[in-house]
Amino acid sequence: MTSSIRAAAALLLACATSAVARESIAQDSVRQDTVTLASVRAHERFLTSDAMRGRGSATADEALAAAYVAAQFEAAGLVPVPGMTSYIQSAPVIRLRVTGPTLLTIGGAAMPGARLASGAGPAVTGTLFVTDKAGAKIPRGAAILFTGPAAKHRAIYSAASKAGATMLMIVDDSPADTTPPRDTVRLADTPQRARMAMVAIPAAAVGKLKSGAAVTLATPFVEEKAATTNAIGFLPGTDPTAKLLLLTAHLDHLGVQDDGICAGANDNASGTVAVIELAKALASGPKLKRGVMFVAYGGEEAGLLGSRYFGEHPPVPLDTIAANVEFEMIGAQDPKLPKGALMMTGMERSDLGATMTAQGAKLAADPYLDQHFFERSDNYSLAVKGIVAHTLSGWATVPTYHTKDDNFASIDLIFMTDAIRSLVTPLRTLANSDVQPAWKPNGKPKE
């Protein structure tokens, strides 16, 4: 072997050794946090499998998903919350199942082709309010007819619900659509505000309708008893006087629809996997000062039911919880956000985002304020109770939202794994600190 060949060989060996060393360091780092691509993929694949049937809210499929999460909590070394005998919290609910066609009358005249989309319940009335602007000032008790673009449906629904409207009518020229309305589900033992009904009516029926007419909506239904299921695990801290961290996600989705299974891979198997992986990661490291409670809620898609029940029946006093971080739809990168960043809803409302960012978390403010995401996830059930609570999301307006295309194949597993892994150190640091996150002036929402 010539000297030049030996030199080249030595250089190649050095490069190879360096590459192996870098890989070993990377693997050690992954091992330390235990968040691996293989583990994330396995949990995601199971939760989105046909066997889970879309994890419909308050169904046996949802309960099975909760049992799976509870088993993962136990395997990670979590224990039941003091005062609980298991990892499961079951919330009794009442399901309202529609049994016949909707009858909508406006100004005493029946509206042909009206279809209830959601919000089954006793007959409701209201005063017609016609608008094509999602930002219009909505009178309380209004029956809204929104004639604006479909892209604004979410915004007007959120605004109408907050304003106390009784129903929202949207224009939908899809007479061939025979999909039955989603069941309305409510908690059985917690006072509920009436859920706003949403009705689709064909454009031909709108005619020259004007604000001020009396509106009545009646839909026949039956009541059925059921339950929604939360999985809860606890990682005790070394300081029993320190306030807890609460890490959460919702595990339910839309279940089986007429056209097949809605797997809910991004919404929200992805967030559920994050909670499982973070439980494993935080439990595998040195003991933390604060206790950490991990919860996978049921019933989110039916109206934040699991988190609302948790807030009304907390296994620990709510004033012992320092902050809540919810994970939802972290399976894809939002093109509007910096590379690798997660969106924090309501980031401007408290100092939690700044605290986590200072500890290395890759977070960005919500660029979709008109969508009211802060109020649309389980964090809100705790925020209105006074707890500093926010949701972390990847691409919240992903095109697969609430469609059959939200499946395992649609998930960016590398982004998802990196996102979960990036939060381990910031959350571990927060759990070992005395920091008490606080609302900014006017940041806390009103209950």
Can you describe what's shown?
The N terminus is likely disordered. The strands form three sheets. The chain has a nine-stranded mixed β-sheet with strand order 8-1-11-15-12-16-19-17-18, sandwiched between helices. An eight-stranded mixed β-sheet has the order 3-2-10-5-6-7-9-4. A two-stranded antiparallel ribbon has the order 13-14. It is an alpha/beta fold. It has ten helices and 19 strands. Helix content is 30%, strand content 24%.
Quaternary structure classification: single chain
- Rg measurement, Å: 24 Å
Question: SS-based structural class?
Answer: alpha/beta
State which percent range the strand residues make up.
15-25%
Helical residues, percent? 25-40%
Shape: globular
Cα end-to-end separation: 80 Å
Strand order of the largest sheet: 8-1-11-15-12-16-19-17-18
Can you give the mean pLDDT?
89
Largest sheet: 9 strands, mixed
Helix-strand sequence: HHHEEEEEEHEEEHEEEEEHEHEEHEHEH
How many individual β-strands? Answer: 19
Number of helices: 10
Unreliable residue runs: 1-32
Quick recap:
This protein is an alpha/beta fold. It has helices at 3-33, 37-47, 60-76, 153-163, 203-206, 265-284, 305-312, 352-358, 379-383, 413-431, and strands spanning 88-98, 103-106, 109-110, 115-118, 124-131, 142-146, 167-171, 184-187, 197-201, 214-218, 221-235, 244-250, 255-257, 260-262, 292-297, 321-327, 342-344, 363-365, 388-393.
What attributes does this structure have?
447 residues; alpha/beta; 10 helices; 9-stranded mixed β-sheet; globular; 19 strands
How do the helices and strands line up, and which of them pair or pack?
Elements: H1 3-33, H2 37-47, H3 60-76, E1 88-98, E2 103-106, E3 109-110, E4 115-118, E5 124-131, E6 142-146, H4 153-163, E7 167-171, E8 184-187, E9 197-201, H5 203-206, E10 214-218, E11 221-235, E12 244-250, E13 255-257, E14 260-262, H6 265-284, E15 292-297, H7 305-312, E16 321-327, E17 342-344, H8 352-358, E18 363-365, H9 379-383, E19 388-393, H10 413-431
Parallel strand pairs: 5-6, 6-7, 7-9, 12-15, 12-16, 16-19, 17-18
Antiparallel strand pairs: 1-8, 1-11, 2-3, 2-10, 4-9, 5-10, 11-15, 13-14, 17-19
